[in-house]
Design brief:
single chain; alpha/beta; 4-stranded antiparallel β-sheet; 4-stranded parallel β-sheet; 20 helices
Length: about 600
């Protein structure tokens, strides 16, 4: 189905041509003066230059030619040559009717369905998941759902950091504490134990201890680096420990991501790239792409047009160890082999931008990906505390995600429990859903690249531009629809009616923008556009609600018209929050 502006543009094209002008001037946009009109066309101004004629004369002729169009209640030419349009109420209600009959509410299937891999989450195994990973998970999950709604084949990959120095540290520390474990006995050829030699709590303690110790002790650090090297080169005992670390951590990570409504299709990681590394290195050397630089193997990626220095991509360290660049390149080889993606989208802190510039250039230059494969980087800003500095716990440490979620849940529960009329368990579940909306909307309503202030008080408020406000609006609509149905009437058979008030018209016009907003949010990979839209839509709904008797309306047809409008508003809001990665409770 055509977007509303497209339909209006078609009408204007006909009018421009009828009046003797090229239809290319007939572009319609939303009005930037909503006090004057709903949509506008500024094409007469541009046409004036081409036709050497006063713009107002052209605008007048076009408006004249529009007189037969059924789309407008009013179209007028305004000095110096604007065409201001107010839509016909019947046209708008029939547009909504058409929308509501479509499963995707007017969003068309893409011309070409793409296979898109979204690389997000990016937790580092053996290190606790902290708020730094929150944004990647929240933004990535939303981008994934938007792309999927639009109709693409989308694969979400957590791409764990599971192949680096932290693994060497854990192994080294474990060896120090329990030197008699069979993993450290090189002559051991039997089967290693099935039970992990640590619990998740121990594992979480081991890493920071080892990391701090290595900073103070050079020989310990050397040992950890060597352990990393041995692991990457297939050391049997270390591989077995690595597998234990993975099992224990991934179970914990799944729980954490689950609490955030974040679901990955693939639980792959840097380690999965390992089998592709030796042949990749061979290829890069043989084709002359890679050369030695102070013992390290590198590929130059600078370009003449660069305004700042882009250092070479590092393929192997002088000791032969793989690096972050290496695993990302080899992962692209694996992805190409297994999924042939049309696009790969990476979502990390924007401080990793240079890394991705290097990797993308290297992958293209060396043919690791096809020329037409799109490689996209979304870099996000920092989540700050109210003091404007990176978010910390009250005692100053980096806040762990689990605690952050627990804190916000508790805050929400306190609010909800104040006027609780439902059972404890329902209140808890409701608090969880509302808290998640607070957390995610608080993040997603900002442009990703910007830093933002994590403000629990503001995010959990039921008023203003917040997740809870959106949920509150949905719950309010659900409640009205529920009571309507209780009177024995059927919501599904309600017919749209022409708007009979300014607030009804405004709500209808807002609802009619849905397909355009979604298309735009997808094109720009910008969940914040959806947030801005549902905030406007919720405001339009609440204004309408306060001015309109709905359940008390005696004229049944009129009432049915309101109900149809409420129902589509609810569908839009629920569809949008699903794309943002949260859901509404039944009541709150
Ligand atoms: N593990 C990385 C980190 O914590 C993020 C991984 C992002 N994805 C990637 N393909 N490099 O910073």
């Amino acid at each position: 189905m055509k977007k509303l502006v497209e339909q209006l543009t078609l009408e204007l094209e006909t009018a421009f041509e009828k009046a003797g002008y090229d239809k290319k001037y007939a572009v319609v946009t939303l009005s930037n003066r909503p006090d004057l009109c709903e949509y506008q066309c500024n094409g007469a101004m541009a046409a004036a230059k081409a036709y050497h004629k006063a713009p107002i004369l052209i605008a007048n002729e076009v408006v004249e030619a529009l007189s037969e169009s059924a789309c407008f209640q009013k179209a007028e030419a305004v000095a110096p040559g604007f065409i201001n349009m107010t839509l016909d109420a019947g046209f708008v209600s029939s547009y909504l009717k058409a929308m509501s009959s479509e499963e995707k509410l007017g969003v068309n299937a893409p011309e070409k369905q793409k296979t898109i891999i979204i690389d997000y989450g990016g937790a580092n195994v053996a290190k606790p998941l902290h708020v730094g990973h929150l944004r990647s998970a929240v933004i990535g999950e939303s981008v994934k759902r938007i792309a999927r709604y639009v109709g693409h084949r989308v694969i979400g990959d957590v791409h764990l950091g599971d192949w680096g120095y932290q693994m060497g540290l854990v192994i080294t520390e474990l060896k120090k504490r329990k030197p008699n474990l069979s993993y450290f006995d090189d002559s051991f050829t039997g089967e290693y134990p099935k039970e992990p030699p640590f619990t998740i709590a121990e594992l979480e303690e081991i890493y920071p201890t080892a990391s701090a110790y290595a900073k103070e002790h050079g020989d310990y650090k050397e040992e950890a680096l060597h352990a990393t090297y041995l692991l990457q080169n297939g050391h049997r005992g270390y591989t077995a420990i690595w597998q234990h670390i993975m099992n224990v951590s991934v179970t914990d990570l799944k729980k954490n991501y689950g609490a955030l409504n974040v679901e990955f299709d693939l639980w792959k990681g840097e380690a999965d790239a390992q089998p592709y590394i030796p042949s990749m290195v061979e290829y890069l050397k043989k084709e002359g792409y890679a050369h030695l630089d102070q013992g390290a193997l590198v590929v130059d990626v600078k370009e003449e047009t660069d305004t700042k220095e882009i250092p070479p991509c590092m393929i192997l360290k002088s000791d032969g160890a793989a690096l972050y660049d290496t695993t990302d390149l080899a992962t692209l080889i694996e992805r190409e082999k297994l999924y042939q993606p049309d696009e790969v989208i990476y979502i990390t802190d924007k401080r990793q931008e240079l890394h991705f510039i290097q990797v993308f250039r290297c992958a293209k230059k060396t043919g690791i990906v096809r020329k037409e494969t799109e490689l996209t980087f979304i870099g996000f800003g920092t989540m700050n505390g109210k003091d404007g500095k990176p978010f910390k716990t009250r005692d100053g440490g980096v806040m762990r995600l689990e605690y952050l979620i627990a804190d916000i849940n508790e805050e929400m529960y306190k609010k909800i429990a104040q006027n609780r009329t439902v059972a404890e368990s329902e209140a808890k579940e409701t608090a969880r859903k509302v808290a998640l909306s607070a957390l995610k909307y608080g993040d997603l309503s900002n442009q990703a690249a910007k830093d933002y202030v994590f403000d629990v008080d503001r995010f959990t408020s039921f008023e203003g531009n917040t997740g809870p406000y959106i949920l509150y609006t949905i719950v309010r609509i659900k409640s009205i629809l529920g009571r309507y149905a209780e009177t024995g009437k059927n919501v599904q058979t309600c017919e749209f009616k022409e708007a009979d008030s300014a607030s009804a018209k405004a709500l209808m016009l807002e609802a009619a923008k849905f397909n355009q907003v979604i298309e735009n949010a997808y094109d720009e990979l910008a969940p914040h556009k959806i947030c801005a839209y549902i905030y406007d839509l919720s405001n339009a709904f609440n204004r309408f609600y306060h001015e309109t008797k709905i359940l008390a309306e005696e004229n049944e047809e009129k009432q049915a018209g309101y109900i149809a409008l409420l129902d589509i508003t609810k569908r839009i809001l629920e569809t949008c929050i699903d794309m943002l990665g949260f859901e509404a409770p039944e009541r709150m």
